[in-house]
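Design a sequence for this backbone.
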């Protein structure tokens, strides 16, 4: 694990266990194009069972529906790579876990699969806290498959850190 990921892992753990909180914040992840990489980074730090509850790798649309409860209508109307799907993934991760905060990542890492409206490198993110609506964001990253996935994990964890600090 490279230094940037180690630093992110440690920062997520510290933020989830901040002494100013009455209790730790448990985290869940819902990942598609990153294949569990965000969960791997979070759990790199020893003791991560104190803040990481579970991760869902829902690469197929069927898995998104079955494991996270993403409505098939959302997938049909907006596609797997959409803010709407990312939001439902993050909400589903909370509903199907004991976590208090979640992140979701769904995108087109390439080298194929893009379209004019959603080019390769398009990644949709969502972060959600129990009892609150999901925050979503879409980014288009440059580079090959590995670069897109790496940037997506970093962005998702940086977004999680921002939301853990509030």
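Sequence:
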């Amino acid at each position: 694990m490279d230094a940037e990921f180690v630093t992110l892992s440690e920062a997520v753990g510290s933020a989830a266990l901040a002494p100013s909180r009455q209790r730790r914040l448990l985290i869940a992840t819902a990942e598609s194009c990153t294949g569990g990489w965000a969960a791997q980074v979070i759990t790199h730090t020893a003791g991560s069972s104190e803040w990481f509850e579970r991760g869902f790798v829902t690469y197929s649309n069927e898995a998104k529906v079955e494991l996270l409860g993403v409505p098939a209508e959302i997938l049909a109307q907006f596609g797997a790579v959409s803010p709407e799907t990312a939001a439902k993934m993050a909400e589903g991760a909370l509903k199907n876990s004991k976590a208090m905060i979640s992140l979701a990542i769904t995108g087109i890492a390439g080298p194929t699969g893009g379209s004019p409206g959603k080019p390769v490198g398009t990644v949709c993110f969502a972060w959600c806290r129990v009892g609150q609506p999901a925050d979503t964001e879409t980014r288009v990253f440059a580079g090959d498959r590995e670069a897109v996935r790496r940037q997506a994990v970093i962005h998702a964890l940086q977004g999680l850190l921002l939301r853990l600090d509030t």
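The chain has one domain: 3-164.
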